Amino acid sequence: MAKLQPEYVTVFQAEDEIAAVTSALGASFAGGIGVTASSGPGLSLKAEGLGLAVMTELPLVLIDVQRGGPSTGLPTKTEQSDLTQALHGRHGEAPLPVLAARSAADAFDTTLLAVKIAVECMTPVIVLSDAYIAGSAQPWRIPDIGELPSITPPRGSAGEEPYARDAHGVRPWVTPGTPGGAHRIGGLEGEVGTGRISYEPANHQAMVTARAAKVQAASRLYGPLEVVQRCPGADTLVLAWGSTYGAVRSDVERRAAAGQNVDYIHLRHMHPLHPDLKATAERYRRVVVVEMNEGQLAHHLQGEWACRVESVCKTTGQPFTTEELAELWN
């Protein structure tokens, strides 16, 4: 990207992960959209900056290319072990939307949705990729600009309070230097509406609740729940996410051809979950979750839904194969 020098894009090589995330957040503070990327250990280092983005309610996109861990781990091998960190790995009550790409081509649509959510909901967003996707190539038609979904920033006037909220709980985005404006956003808790520093217990509770509600409301931008495969009379639902898509799709198609009817949903929206997902899953006798970790999505769903799901997982640094999946569950 630095070689291409695209118009309206500034490329900056920071000295470390903390500088990268806070510089990207500074770009958003100034009225742009900051984007930063890393892998699992870098995500850990960026956690404090993400917390600042949550508190200031500024748009930011962080792309995490997952690899085998922990620590340096398997730096050239694939894994999906950063999900729990992406969902919960920040100080305090700091929820944010988390999306996952399923292929090299899908990474474009997923990242575009992440930018739309970040801007229209004034929140940081994490996009989960992994080493398998990062090393993949796939035919992809470059879309016409007119085909892309619109992104509408919540622009406000200098006279508006910094934490005034619209019907979806989103605050206005007024850039520094706007004539007549005075900014009151930062890492300290702000008063409801005004943004003045506040240590009042009831105010902190109200702001924590408002930030969480705003993130939950981001699901309005998702669109319909996509079911990859439907089979007549299926009583088993397979759930997967990320780069497992190709292997899992081939596996469920093979099972359907052999008379084992299973339905399949591949998740893009890790948090908040798609609003129709729970009701859909409850219609099945059996829910099987396939992922390249030790059951992080399965544990998350069981916590959210208070119901049992079956976990099919591995952490070998290698992607699933269809032959493996045929042996791992029936």
Overall spatial form: globular
- Give the strand order of the largest sheet, numbering strands 1, 2, ... along the chain: 1-2-4-3-7
Q: What is the radius of gyration computed over CA atoms, rounded to a whole number of angstroms?
A: 21 Å
Low-confidence sequence ranges: none
Which structural class matches the secondary elements? alpha/beta
| H/E series | HEHHEHEHEHHEHEEHEHEH
Bin the strand percentage.
Answer: 5-15%
User: What is the overall number of helices?
Assistant: 11
Average pLDDT reading: 95
Total strand segments: 9
User: What CATH architecture of the largest domain would you give?
Assistant: 3-Layer(aba) Sandwich
Summed up, the domain count is 2
- The end-to-end span amounts to 46 Å
Helix content: 25-40%
By CATH, the topology of the largest domain is Rossmann fold
Biggest sheet features: 5 strands, mixed
Can you identify the CATH superfamily of the largest domain? Answer: Thiamin diphosphate (ThDP)-binding fold, Pyr/PP domains
Name of the CATH class of the largest domain: Alpha Beta
